[in-house]
Amino acid sequence: MVHSIAAAREGAQNSAYLDDTYLEQVDTRVIALGETDGTPWAAVEHCLFHPQGGGQPADRGWLEDAEIVPVRDRESGLVVATAAEDGSLPSLAVGERVRARIDLPTRMRHAALHTAGHLVEAVGRAQGWEMVGSIHFPGQARIEFQAPPAGARLADPDGREEVTVALRAAVAAAVADDLPVSARYLPDGRRVVRLDALHSAPCGGTHVRSLGDLADVVLPTLKVKKGRIRVSYTATHRSC
Ligand SMILES: [Zn+2]
User: Fold this and answer.
1) What's the number of domains the chain is made of?
2) Same-domain pairing of 83 and 98
3) pLDDT digits (tens, 9 = 90+) for 41-84
4) Which domain holds residue 72?
5) Each residue of 21-53: pLDDT tens digit?
6) How far is the C-alpha of 96 from the C-alpha of 161, rounded, in Å?
7) How far, in Å, from the CA of 197 to the mean position of ligand 1?
8) Residues 227 and 131 in one domain
9) What's the whole-model pTM score?
10) In angstroms, what is the span from residue 71 Cα to ligand 1's centroid?
């Protein structure tokens, strides 16, 4: 990997996207400029941009008027902005003030799908299942669980439908109860997200404020494939 970096204060970046899912724009400053494998990038102090990771897609964002794609730079650990396809980064200097902005409707859609994923995980775990995989991308969101060895109920189409009906009911009840969603940091620095008392998990994603923010949560009948229970789902953010 070819890597060069010019940094004023490395480690001075804060992940603003973790503090406020709904913060759309911030005036901040450039803390580092670099290049990785020939791709130039810029890092800003107040980072609004969620990079792809943890099963959640990257935000759509801008530095000034230039559309950017945020990625986690492995060398520096910073979330850096690279030019979007066919675009280029604005000309910037370390220390320069710059306006950072995200596409808020896209962020809210991703946060809703991601938070709904936690909820699906929670209701699956309540069935005694162990989660083995998750993806929160639009159009392919699903949580996968290890199928229990004596899962006779799940071998039968009526049984799968019956279990799905129970999952749907548990999801609908949690949304109707508008359970609060919160995040806190453990002493070791890990961030843990909670859906009230229903669920907690280490997570670096973006979440809605409470489950009442979720709309159109739909769970098609679950599938069992190669020893895994696959619960697909869709969800949107209620209009604000
Ligand atoms: Zn999360």
Assistant:
1) 2
2) yes
3) 999 999 999 999 878 899 999 999 999 999 999 888 899 999 99
4) 3-102
5) 999 999 999 999 999 989 999 999 999 999 998
6) 57
7) 15
8) yes
9) 0.91
10) 18
